[in-house]
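Attaching the record inline, Q. Sequence:
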Amino acid sequence: YKMKYGNRGHNLPCIHHGTGRCFTTSQNHGFAVDTETLPIEWEPLFTNVNDSTNEGGIIHKQKPYFSVQFHPEHTAGPEDLELLFDVFLNAVKSQKSQGASTISLRQQLINRLMYTPTPESLLGKRPRKVLILGSGGLSIGQAGEFDYSGSQAIKAMKEEKIQTVLINPNIATVQTSKGLADKCYFLPLTPEYVEQVIKAERPNGVLLTFGGQTALNCGVELEKSGVFSKYNVKILGTPIKSIIETEDRKIFAERVNEIGEKVAPSEAVYSVEEALSAAKRIGFPVMARAAFSLGGLGSGFADNEDELENLARQALAHSSQ
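Structure, as predicted:
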């Protein structure tokens, strides 16, 4: 049947009926299958989580037939279910070389899509209490996504029955609302205050990526000073190493080159003189970007040495690189 609007996008969630797992998919279509009209030998394979429609994801109960209506569109979207091609091609090759498989295609899909975590990953690595570095001081209309993401992180932890401790000096945020976090500290997001909270609360893990640049910088400083290892606090989510490598312009360019991708010619400098010398080698106009800076503070474009000198002084006033 024809849908009113259709499903069009790169991150649409679909549930696999054999395992109950949810996958992100690319879709670009305006029709759905009425599962109530399916013949008895067919059953749904995937169902859209947003509107409970079937995007043509059906499978035969006995014969090796299945279909989906996911549209990679030149691989622009997620690749969660790219293995569907592997299962299909392996079934075809196996049919030619070994004859019909004793394992149904439906079961083969379940085997490939099933995820069974080990007891160690469920119990040994599961934190009891998590510290969340919040969004910090924000103005109205500024960086609200960090308040939102932090709020969602708290809700996710509570759903998993994990105790949450939030540090956020800004009382005018959603995440500091009464009853959201189990405990909230209205303290500045600085290494000194965060260490005091860690010492008092003794969390098992910490989330650094929900507070924007301020929280990232604070987390990097705490890691370098050995606070996390001192109190045996595990960094959850994005590792510190990845944060440093993406924030440090020089290291980031090296990592991009390592995987064979193109990156604009750049140099990391630590003084105005180094900036001027680097610009001569690269050639004007240049863009100066302060590393580890809040919202790119002190960054901009320069067409000549005078503009670059002023820009470099501003950037280095906020960052060492």
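The chain has a mean pLDDT of 85. The chain has three domains: 2-113, 127-235, 248-318.

More tomorrow.
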